[in-house]
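Subject: design request, 200 residues
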């Protein structure tokens, strides 16, 4: 189990989390520098995981980067910065985000509040609530909680896709030696139209 502290962000904290991720991405992409969280809101000192997702708003849109960790001893502010930089780097989707893309990317942040190691993934999984992490041997994969909603996936499809991302068999989530962790938390994201940050 993760040592994540239970965190519940206010809307203002969530908006700041997205802003911090945006600042970290822009600092890394424009200057190759690691943004420091600076003076953080109280909630950002909690030791819990975070994920950052970058999506292009051009055309039909596409994923430009997604990174993070649900198991970490980092303070939330630092976890967000770390995830944002990794999402913008070529380690994520194969190519580093370029400066010219920044105006056409939306940033979202998934702040982990709880993790549940489940023996019955399909029964316990709640679409739209849980992210999924799959571990089998040295293979690891995870998916953001908004992905199945955006794609109209069933619970079984979501679990299968997480297994594929881990380079496991699509049905590996049914195996006794595969660990499936359900990740609960809050997702805040920039609106594609430039409006206020929204909580999903």
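Subject: RE: design request

Done. Sequence follows.
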């Amino acid at each position: 189990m993760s040592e994540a502290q239970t965190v519940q962000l206010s809307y203002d904290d969530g908006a700041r989390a997205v802003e911090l991720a945006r600042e970290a991405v822009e600092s890394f992409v424009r200057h190759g520098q690691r943004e420091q969280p600076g003076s953080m809101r109280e909630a950002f000192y909690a030791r819990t995981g975070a994920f950052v997702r970058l999506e292009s708003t051009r055309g039909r849109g596409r994923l430009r980067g997604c990174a993070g960790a649900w198991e970490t001893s980092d303070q939330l502010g630092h976890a967000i910065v770390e995830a944002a930089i990794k999402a913008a780097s070529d380690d994520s989707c194969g190519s580093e985000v370029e400066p010219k893309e920044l105006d056409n990317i939306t940033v979202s942040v998934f702040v982990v509040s709880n993790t549940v190691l489940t023996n019955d993934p399909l029964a316990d999984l709640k679409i739209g609530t849980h992210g999924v992490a799959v571990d089998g041997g040295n293979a690891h994969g995870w998916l953001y909680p908004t992905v199945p909603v955006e794609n109209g996936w069933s619970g079984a499809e979501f679990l299968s896709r997480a297994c594929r991302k881990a380079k496991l068999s699509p049905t590996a989530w049914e195996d006794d030696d595969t660990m499936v962790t359900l990740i609960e938390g809050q997702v805040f994201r920039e609106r594609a139209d430039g409006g206020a940050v929204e909580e999903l």
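Strands lie at 50-56, 63-69, 105-118, 130-136, 139-143, 179-189, 198-199.
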